[in-house]
Each structure stands twice: as C-alpha cells, then as structure tokens.
TrEMBL record:
Residues 41-313 form the Fe/B12 periplasmic-binding domain. The keyword RNA-binding does not apply. Residues 1-19 form the signal peptide. Pfam families: Peripla_BP_2. This is ABC transporter substrate-binding protein. Keywords: Signal.
Length: 313
C-alpha cells in the first residue's frame, strides 16, 4: 500500500512541482558545481545514467545520449524510454560530439564517459559552458569515499532533481525506492550468515570484477550476501583468479553485456577444471544481472530482489 501511495504522490508532484530558486549548488565528487538555471540541452552517457534521467522525466531537457550501443546494452526498455532521442556516440563521446550537439550539461562518471587525463573532463568542458555532474559511484577515482551503498544511487537522483528543478519529483522517487526495498527486505527469510558472492564481469585470463566501491557490493549486501572482493579498494577492477578460488564463493553473479554472452561466461567457468571445486560452480549457482542492473540506476531495486531470491534457493 505504501508503494501505491508513493506512486500517486509522485504523479501529483510531477504536475505541480514548484520551481526552485537558482542559483543551485550541488556536490559532484570533490567539486561544488553551481547552476544559474536548469540545463536545457543535457547529454547523459551510458545506459544506467540515461535511465536515471528518464526516471526523473527529463527527456525533454535532453538532446541525446552516448555510450550505449557500443557496449550492446540498449535493451527494449531503454529503447522505448529514449524514444526519439538520438545516440550521439556509440561509445565515449569526444569533445567535438558534445560541442556539436550544443550541450549545456553532461551527466557522466569516471570510466562512465570520462577518463582521468582524457579530453572530456569537467575542466576541459568548463571553457565551453558545459557543466558536468559526476556519477557518485565513480568518485573513488578522484577522491576518498565510503563503501558503495544504495545511497550512491539516491544521492545522484536527488542532486539531479536540484539541478533540473524537479526536487519534489526526485525526493518522491527516492522515497518510493526506499519503501520498496524496505518492504521487500522485511519479508525475506533470515539467512544463517551472508552468502559469499563473486561478481564476474568479464575476462578469461584475469577476471574483471567489482570491489568495495562498485555498486554490486551494495546490491549483494542489501540482498543478504557479501562480495568476496569487498576488501579490494576499487570500484571495478581486474584481479587474478587465485583469490576467487581461495575464497570459494557460493554464488557467482554474471554481469551480462557486450560480445561475450552470460551463457559463454558460465560455460567458461564450468568447463575450467581449476574452478570445479568452487561451490558456486559445483552447485551451478549462477545469477545473471544485466549491465544496467549491476550499475547504479533505477533497476537496482529489482536487482536486489532477484539476488535475494537466488541467495535463498
């Protein structure tokens, strides 16, 4: 019932939001960014950041998005969401792409459309009056931050709400997510101890996985598990297979995107004798999350629910 009430309130707020006063200043990683007015020609990079913009009803403030089809992460849900918005670049955009679209705002992150020392950064875009808001999960690349939590998602939505003068909408959306998650967790059977989980993103010679600052750590913990790499001080990182074997995960979470399918990643692990004794492999306990579910975004709550079900099978 609480979810229904929140949805109704969200709809009401969408039609009656009161304009916030400007200038508005928000924290973006280690910077304070001030907006004199709501952006009108925004661009988002990557599927999860674009879905945050869509969840806030900001498609009419956007001139396009970037960095989706190059990684084969455009599914039917997002295809319908972006509707007529063009994809301006299949991978990370160049500065020329952003300038060519006459953008006034870029929602990206470190390793989500920007690279340290690259040509597209908050500093390089500032001279063209393109403001940048950085994904909270990615801030670990430029500053110290707490371990990943659901607050990373909520913080980004609330800050976007301030930037675009839709704070009431953002606050109700976040409240709705919190209620949905709390209600779901309250009904879960208790586990004797957290389920040990390995996140397998990609790579055969060395696996690419999520450390303590990556969103999967927050999703796994919210579902009743523990990321076996939660002592790795990184967000997304390449490691060796040895610690995976040593730490014996009970469940492997496959991140599905790109040219190598989830089935191929599972087959690789099941066919390698070195992994045969890992409980997750021996007991065929694999869970597939789409890229858009495993990275910060509106599909995180559903991802927690699917993980929680898998942890209790």
């Amino acid at each position: 019932m609480r979810l229904v009430i929140a949805l109704a309130a969200l709809a009401a707020a969408s039609s009656s939001a009161v304009a916030a006063g400007y200038p508005v200043t928000v924290r973006s990683c280690d910077r304070e960014v001030t907006f004199e007015a709501a952006p009108q020609r925004a661009i988002s990079n990557d599927v999860n950041l674009t879905e945050m913009m869509l969840a806030l009803g900001l498609s009419d403030r956007m001139v396009g998005y970037t960095g989706v089809s190059g990684w084969k992460t455009l599914d039917e849900t997002l295809r319908q969401g972006v509707a007529e918005l063009p994809e301006l670049s299949p991978e990370y955009p160049s500065k020329e792409v952003l300038l060519g679209a006459d953008a006034d705002f870029y929602f990206a992150g470190w390793n989500y459309g920007m690279r340290l020392g690259g040509e597209v950064t908050p500093e390089t875009l500032a001279e063209f009056d393109i403001a940048v808001y950085e994904l909270s999960e990615s801030c670990i690349h430029v500053m110290d931050k707490p371990k990943a939590s659901m607050d990373d998602l909520y913080n980004d939505l609330l800050n976007l709400g301030q930037i675009f003068d839709v704070s009431e909408r953002a606050e109700l959306l976040v409240e709705n997510y919190k209620i949905a998650l709390e209600d779901y967790q309250a009904g879960l059977p208790a586990l004797p101890e957290p389920v040990s989980v390995f996140v397998y993103d990609s790579g055969e010679a060395k696996p690419f996985t999520a450390g303590q600052y990556g969103m999967p750590t927050a999703l796994i913990e919210a579902a009743g598990g523990r990321n076996i790499m939660d002592d790795v001080e990184s967000s997304w990182v390449e490691i060796g297979w040895e610690p995976v074997i040593e730490r014996n995960p009970e469940v492997v979470v496959i991140v599905n995107y790109g040219d190598v399918t989830a089935e191929q990643k599972i087959d690789f692990m099941k066919s390698n004798p070195a992994f045969a004794a890992i409980p997750a492999v021996a007991n065929d306990r694999f869970v597939v999350l789409e890229y858009v579910e495993a990275t910060p975004g509106p599909r995180n709550i559903a991802a927690v629910q699917r993980l929680a079900e898998a942890f209790r099978e």
